[in-house]
């Protein structure tokens, strides 16, 4: 009963957070450019930065009066919709090689319709994960349904749009918490597939369940170190952390898919139908296929398929298929 109440309270708080984020979309500032290591890597055509004259390849020297090398660079206050920020950039002419310093004033606007639409789609997918997880746990409480409900809460927290937060420390805290939630969801997903529909032999080993979550401790430790040190050492820790996180998340995904395929291959045809494995496999494949196509197109062919910004929409099939399978398996076990 205590677990059920706790899950319901957390779910209610997350839904309220997501709704607040939706209502606050109009207050999210948009400059229409992106930079990496102080170099402008993207300028959206027709956006505020494009109209102001910013170009890809410009090197940021300062933004809003704060130098890139200043220790307060990361802590600079967020702009507001309608506010203007002065960007001082170093620009190199590709034909002559001459370097000039340019002053560019960018007036921030509301997010474009496409960006706000994607935020709303994210909210729908996150809500589907959350509701499916809660529905299964309330109807068929048990370890598999508990793991599935935690997955739903964590994915919902990660996908729900976030309201505008002025405080740098609070932005870092909430961003870190929701990213950790994504990592927890991946670990719980692997755990779920190692015990559903049947407990795998590897889970019979001592402390095997604890080892699933061990990589999360390493990620958390690096995160703590990153925010307690500064300078070049912090950059090095950030790079190591990014590589570690990518490896861990990829490992969780690969192992989870491997566990699902193992369960499907080992199960007899009648058990696949009885335990919903056919539905789960179809949901996972259809949910991941569009994103896989998009990733392959961008990585190997440097192109984006038409409408690729919506290729993550079929992800909603994953929680729906698992909810169906878990409830079906629970009903069959009671017969």
What does this structure look like?
- With 335 residues, this protein is an alpha+beta fold.
- The protein folds into 2 domains: 2-22 and 113-200 and 246-334, no CATH class; 29-110, Pdz3 Domain (Roll), CATH 2.30.42.10.
- Helices cover 60% and strands 11% of the residues.
- The protein is built from 11 helices and 8 strands.
- It has helices at residues 2-23, 48-52, 113-139, 143-159, 168-195, 208-212, 214-226, 231-266, 269-274, 277-301, 317-334, and strands at 29-30, 33-36, 39-43, 59-63, 66-67, 84-92, 99-107, 109-110.
- The strands form 3 sheets. Strands 5-4-6-7 form a 4-stranded antiparallel β-sheet. A two-stranded antiparallel ribbon has the order 1-8. A two-stranded antiparallel sheet has the order 2-3.
- Strand 4 and strand 5 form a beta hairpin.
- The mean pLDDT is 85.
**Proportion in β-strands:** 5-15%
Amino-to-carboxy terminus distance: 24 Å
Largest sheet: 4 strands, antiparallel
Reading the helices and strands in chain order gives HEEEHEEEEEHHHHHHHHH
Q: Which structural class is indicated by helix and strand composition?
A: alpha+beta
Write the layout of secondary structure elements.
Elements: H1 2-23, E1 29-30, E2 33-36, E3 39-43, H2 48-52, E4 59-63, E5 66-67, E6 84-92, E7 99-107, E8 109-110, H3 113-139, H4 143-159, H5 168-195, H6 208-212, H7 214-226, H8 231-266, H9 269-274, H10 277-301, H11 317-334
Antiparallel strand pairs: 1-8, 2-3, 4-5, 4-6, 6-7
Helix pairs in contact: 1-3, 1-4, 3-4, 3-11, 4-5, 4-11, 5-8, 7-8, 10-11
